[in-house]
């Protein structure tokens, strides 16, 4: 029974949650009124109460409790309680952002400062989850996810289903990336194809809303092919008018060593590639280096204030407004007060 009640209470959302805190002041108010009544009686001295006086005192106590309930109902109605699905729907208004996560082998390097997120891909995933929490707080923004190594794969199209996105991100494992991103027979040049990933991110955007779109690339920029394939991604983004914001992960000074089969490979953060991608597409470069990127703060400060699309065909579920029930109950109590005063 208790878990059911806790789940029911947890499902309630408030339009003005700060009003709920005012309920804590109600007991103090009525304790003060109770004491004032007691003081008035003490000033009268020892008075023998008749049965009618005892009934009046008990009646006053009951009406004091009823008045407390009345104010509680009014405050709850003002707070705007919502639960359950409504037949109405709201339009998702915000920006569109495609997350591009690098799962190439160099992202397995353990050169990050956070002991719980030692590898680069773990820090990238933690940053993506932080961004998701920030976006979810405001709502309306659509997010999509592209994973890549030698090849890109669209993990999630643009959506406002943040719980679905969170589930997908928690399942991402850089040590065992999806088969779709691993090198194929024709991918012998490099296992890191940033250009393909950016082109896939551009394709994942909704062409109906140009000017309200962004791409966020989380990578170490380390492409062993050294053929500047990433410039193809710059060209695709510039043609579509989509800025690419890049986040650099890893140590740019001391290379980390990876064991790939019988080979030892060194890798370090290549900031020049990521900075060039951001500059040539009109985006920002975030040099996180060995720290977990604070992309949630970045989104809140730099992207969220930008113009938002005014309409989308993706409807958001709306919770049912429940304040009317509290107002009705308060009105009934008011009617009882009125009848009492006659």
In the CATH hierarchy, what is the superfamily of the largest domain?
Answer: von Willebrand factor, type A domain
Q: What is the rounded Rg?
A: 30 Å
Helices and strands, in order, run as HEHHHEEHEEHHEHEEEHEHEH
Total number of beta strands: 11
Structural class: alpha/beta
Give the tally of structural domains. Answer: 2
Low-confidence stretches: none
Number of helices: 11
- Overall shape: it is elongated
Taking the alpha carbons of the first and last residues, their distance comes to 43 Å
Task: Outline the structure in words.
The chain is an alpha/beta fold and 342 residues long. The chain folds into 2 domains: 110 residues, no CATH class; 221 residues, Rossmann fold (3-Layer(aba) Sandwich). It contains 11 helices and 11 strands. The model has no long low-confidence stretch (mean pLDDT 85).
Quick structural gist:
Residues 96-310 form the VWFA domain. With 342 residues, this protein is an alpha/beta fold.
Which terms would index this structure?
cell membrane, 11 helices, 6-stranded mixed β-sheet, transmembrane helix, 342 residues, single chain, 20% strand, transmembrane, Rossmann fold, 11 strands, 3-stranded antiparallel β-sheet, alpha/beta
């Amino acid at each position: 029974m208790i878990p059911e009640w806790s789940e029911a209470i947890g499902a309630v959302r408030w339009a003005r949650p700060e009003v709920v805190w005012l309920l804590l002041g109600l007991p103090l108010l009525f304790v003060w009124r109770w004491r004032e009544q007691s003081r008035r009686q003490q000033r009268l001295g020892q008075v023998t109460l008749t049965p009618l006086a005892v009934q009046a005192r008990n009646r006053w106590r009951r009406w004091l409790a009823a008045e407390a309930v009345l104010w509680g109902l009014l405050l709850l109605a003002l707070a705007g309680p919502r639960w359950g699905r409504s037949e109405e729907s709201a339009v998702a208004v915000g920006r569109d952002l495609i997350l591009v996560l690098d799962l190439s082998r160099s992202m397995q390097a353990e050169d990050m400062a956070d002991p719980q997120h030692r590898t680069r891909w773990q820090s990238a995933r933690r940053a993506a989850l932080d961004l998701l929490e920030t976006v979810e707080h405001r709502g309306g923004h659509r997010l999509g996810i592209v994973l890549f190594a030698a090849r890109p794969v669209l993990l999630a199209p643009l959506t406002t289903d943040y719980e679905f996105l969170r589930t997908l991100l928690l399942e991402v494992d850089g040590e065992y990336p999806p088969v779709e991103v691993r090198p194929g027979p024709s991918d012998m040049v490099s296992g890191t194809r940033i250009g393909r990933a950016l082109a896939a991110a551009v394709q994942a955007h909704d062409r109906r809303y140009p000017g309200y779109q962004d791409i966020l690339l989380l990578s170490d920029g380390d492409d062993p092919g050294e053929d500047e394939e990433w410039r193809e991604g710059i060209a695709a983004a510039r043609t579509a008018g989509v800025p690419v914001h890049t986040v650099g992960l890893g140590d740019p000074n001391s290379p980390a060593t990876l064991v790939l089969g019988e080979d030892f490979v060194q890798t370090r953060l290549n900031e020049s590639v990521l900075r060039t991608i951001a500059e040539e597409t009109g985006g920002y470069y975030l040099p996180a280096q060995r720290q977990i990127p604070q992309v949630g703060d970045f989104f809140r400060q730099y992207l969220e204030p930008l113009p938002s699309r005014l309409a989308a065909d993706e409807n958001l579920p709306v919770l049912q407004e429940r304040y009317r029930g509290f107002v009705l109950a308060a009105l009934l109590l008011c009617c009882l007060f009125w009848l009492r005063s006659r």
